[in-house]
């Protein structure tokens, strides 16, 4: 049995030693439970993405991210935002005039290939337009976005009564195509 030490991406404190068994998905589940984040990616100490559990050796030190890029815990000039990573990076979306507040990791973790993940994985890469309060503008119906955001938060699709399912599916396709 191999064991590794896991740290939240960008940090070198509060590590957790865990046994490596099963699949990479199993290890990500353990990392999620131990570190209190939604583990999506594992990196070695040099920032290499680990995509196969057989690449992990006994006593490796690994960094766990919620979908964000590797952040070197040794880099100089880190800010607290850099250290904490995306799981505390709050942002506000203005969807059709209604404000939704969530974390960057909520938008990028569950569906990493979605349009929302691409828009918000890294700050200001897409040049997203913002309103006067700094909320990111997305020209879609808030009634159809709310169940999508709840799915990203909790993994369940709950559609309110009165929602046209055909229109909802079109909205779903827009965000997750």
TrEMBL record:
It comes from the Eukaryota. Residues 91-161 form the BTB domain. Keywords: Membrane, Transmembrane, Transmembrane helix. The keyword Transmembrane helix applies. GO terms for molecular function: cullin family protein binding. One of its GO terms (cellular component) is Cul3-RING ubiquitin ligase complex. GO terms for biological process: intracellular signal transduction; proteasome-mediated ubiquitin-dependent protein catabolic process; protein homooligomerization. Residues 3-82 form the KHA domain. The chain crosses the membrane at residues 157-176. InterPro entries: BTB/POZ_dom (IPR000210), Doublecortin_dom_sf (IPR036572), KHA_dom (IPR021789), SKP1/BTB/POZ_sf (IPR011333), T1-type_BTB (IPR003131). Pfam families: BTB_2, KHA. This is BTB/POZ domain-containing protein KCTD9.
């Amino acid at each position: 049995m191999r064991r590794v030490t896991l740290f939240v991406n960008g940090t070198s404190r509060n590590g957790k030693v865990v046994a490596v068994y099963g699949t990479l998905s199993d290890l990500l589940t353990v990392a999620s439970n131990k570190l209190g984040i939604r583990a999506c990616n594992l990196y070695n100490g040099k920032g290499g993405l680990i995509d196969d559990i057989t690449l992990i050796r006994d006593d490796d030190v690994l960094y766990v991210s919620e979908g964000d890029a590797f952040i070197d815990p040794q880099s100089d000039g880190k800010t607290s935002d850099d250290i904490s990573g995306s799981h505390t990076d709050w942002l506000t979306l203005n969807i059709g005039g209604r404000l939704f507040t969530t974390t960057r990791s909520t938008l990028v973790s569950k569906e990493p290939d979605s349009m929302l993940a691409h828009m918000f994985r890294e700050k200001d890469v897409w040049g997203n337009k913002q309103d006067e309060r700094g909320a990111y503008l997305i020209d879609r119906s808030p009634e159809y976005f709310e169940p999508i955001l709840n799915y990203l938060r909790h993994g369940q699709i709950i559609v309110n009564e009165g929602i046209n399912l055909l229109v909802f599916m079109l909205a779903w396709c827009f965000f997750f195509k």
